[in-house]
Each structure stands twice: as structure tokens, then as C-alpha cells.
Amino acid sequence: MEGRYEVVSLLTTCNEHFQRVSMHDEYVERMKGHLLAYKAQGVTRFAFGDIFLEDLKRWREENLAQLDLRGVFPIWKVDSRQLIREFISLGFGSVICCVNDAYLDETALGRNIDSDFIHWLPAGVDACGENGEYHSFAFAGPIFQQPLRLHVGEKVYRPVEETHPGPTSAVCPLPGARQTKGFWYCDLLPAP
Question: Which pTM does this prediction carry?
């Protein structure tokens, strides 16, 4: 993918009520508005870091196709253990900022993703968190001019009912997935 595309922006979503990264509340409509704004600027493709979740990839592609846009999946079907080892060996730094309580507990919050972390992960947890076991924030690496200096702030637990209110936005478990009761989050704040 290197050299084939010009990256014009990075985009994430944030739950307005809790001020935390989220993929659920009004996601489709809001994302559609952002995608159309980029399309008006000449952007035709959107990259995603999905690795092996077929349903999620298909959902993204179908939503993009409705807007006459296409998805790019540069790490699709690459072994996640290989990806995380390469990520670490290239010098990237990333910290855990959210965990699904069906897989991990609050002790994972604020941990750096490094070899020790990967060895610490319980059996059945994907090394890259591809099944939604955890989410992370990259703060350093070869594409950064300098590492971001962060410290872990408040840690909070949100039951599923609070993080995904309403009948149409419940967590959709993957086949064979463990039962999620809620999520642990931590604030990542600029170091003083």
C-alpha cells in the first residue's frame, strides 16, 4: 500500500455522552456524513485495520458502496501474531485503553503492548484484540516525529446497558464469543 495512496486524515468516533471512543451510538449516520464530506474533497477510498472478521469487512464494504466509495484493507488475512510482533519490532508504542470484561479486567488498562503483554494475554484472546477483546492507542513509532507523553487517568467500568443504550444498538456477539457484561475504559492524558 505504501506509495499507492495519500493519507489525508485519520478518523475515530467518540461517544458524546461518555466522551470515550465508541463504534455504536449513531455511528452509521454520523460516519456517512463524514465520508460524504471527504468524498466531496475527492477522497474515494477509506482504509481499515480489519484483519479477519468477514462480517465486519462486508458491512464496511456495503456501507461504502452505498456512497460509491471503496475500502482498503492492507492487513487483511495477515496472521495477528505476526502483525503484533512486527508492530513491536518496528518500534511502535501502544497502550491499552479499553477492555471487554468477557476477556480481560481492569488490570490490562494502561499496559503497554509489548512482548510481556502478549505473553500475559490469556488463552483465547487474539494478540491484536481483533475480536474486540481490547482496544489500544498508538503513542510512538517510526511515523511519529516524537512519542506522545501520556499518563493513565481515570479508570471506569460501563455495563453494556450504559455503553449501548436502546434496543437497536446492543452488542452483537461473534459466534462462539464470551458473554460481555461491560467494558473497562481509561483516560489517556497528556503527561505534564
Answer: 0.80
